[in-house]
Amino acid sequence: MDRASLIGPNELSIIPKETVSNILGPKGLPRGPYYDTRKHEEGTSLDGIKEYTVHAVRRRPWARGMNSTAMKYYEGVIKEETANLIHGLRERKSKEVDISAWMSFFSFDAMGRMSFSYDLRMLKDGRDSHGLSQQIENGLIEAAWISHVQWLVPFLKYIPSASKSWEEIKAVGERLVRRRAQDGSIHPDIFYYLMNEDGQEITKPVIEVCAIDGMLAIIAGSDTSATTLSHLWYYLLSNSACFNQLRSEVDEVFPLGEDPLNDLSKLGTMSYLNACINEVLRLYPPVLAALQRRVEPDRGGVMVGDHLIPPETQVSLYAYAIHRDPSHFWPIPDQFWPDRWLSQEEYTLPSGDRIASVITDHEVFIPFSAGPMGCVGKNVAMAEMRAVVSTVVQQFDMTVANQSNLAKWEEDIREVFVTSRGTLPVVLKPRHS
Ligand code: HEM
Question: Which Pfam families does the UniProt entry name for this protein (predicted)?
């Protein structure tokens, strides 16, 4: 098969177009053994459940937690936390700040409140006093190697410190969930739905199982958005023409004095803002590892194009590779060029050359995965990113504090299932007092 590579004795990485629907769609394949690290003695977190029917039942409360009533509450949180971000950055005006770290402070604080009604206070304190970023990174580095030797998972408890960091981050999630269960909440946060406080499920969930999803909420709900936002600042700092075009759109829709946070729905209609976010999700999807699936032994294989993938083969989809394939995105698939997402009669490339058309294949754009096991938090993530980018661009001029960090940014990126990233020091100058 063209555009397929053998990446293990029994594992294929494939990128043809049909992959997405055949493998990730509703009649696709169950998750592969890579996800065994999501299995704990108390139960399995949502993102580790392999069987479609079991997964669908566990996903129900998560889906309710993303309904329009829930979204209203999250939008309120996003507005307040974006305002806290702007306040924190203003206090540090004209000083060097690591914008990548501040994106984490924002997304952790927003996630803490949206998931557990808990204020982690990183934006107010201007630091990650809980050490969550480092804990997550350590835990994910451990989970990444363990995921490749899944047969070891049942024995890890007998090997001192083998999965210490992974266990620690699980414990943080558990603590937050147990505190939330004890205190209750006046807000319809995500755990309001997961703990069946809305009374929609017949059986009350077991708190131990519920607590496992606490870790998922922390990692899935914060690290991913923070990474995307950090990559976006990197690209905008490296491409002043793109920054200026984005600034023009923001200024046109929200002239200085008009707060973008007053109309989050308008942000969804801003074509260049959304093109920039899509473009960064295309080049660096924050889940850098493969979405691994496995052809069941009794299925008789699965067709991708003209090719049969035999039973018991693991099939891995790397969004990073799929998004950079020239048959899916063309031209300059490895370059940041938001224009490819705009509908235009003619396109001007960064080189100045003009072309009549582009290939932008929305069907294979899978930063959030796709199908019944795809990201449940996509709308929340998009709302967060639009709010932060538009407000920061409206409020500040941003310059690189240290060119060498900018040059090293891509070098420092590591796959740890999601993304480990370096620092990005910048200086912010408010556009008005
Ligand atoms: C830019 C931001 C985000 C990106 C790119 C992203 C991407 C993804 C991807 C690729 C998956 C599938 C992972 C897999 O199957 O291995 C996933 C799953 C998931 N995401 Fe996100 N995510 C983002 C933000 C969020 C947010 C903000 C939340 C919560 C509010 C969230 C909650 C989840 C959950 C619960 C799952 C597991 C879904 C399931 O197994 O049914 N994500 N995400």
Answer: p450
For residue 205, the number of C-alpha atoms closer than 13 Å in the C-beta half-sphere is: 29
Which residue, among 347, 294, 360, has the nearest Cα to 11 in the 3D structure? 294
Query: At 85, is the secondary structure helix, strand, or coil?
Result: helix
- On whether residue 7 sits in a domain, the answer given is no
Strand 39-40 and strand 43-44: pairing? antiparallel
Query: Does 335 reside within a domain?
Result: no
Q: Which two tokens stand for residue 350?
A: 């960064």
239-276 tens-digit pLDDT: 999 999 999 999 999 998 899 999 999 999 999 999 99
Number of domains in the chain: 1
Residue 315 near ligand 1, beta carbon < 6 Å: no
Considering the entire predicted model, what is its pTM?
0.95
Structure tokens belonging to residue 303: 């067709």
Residue nearest atom 35 of ligand 1, based on CA coordinates? 376
Q: Please tell me whether the peptide bond between 367 and the residue prior to it is cis, using omega within 30 degrees of 0.
A: no
Residue 46, ligand 1, Cβ within 6 A: yes
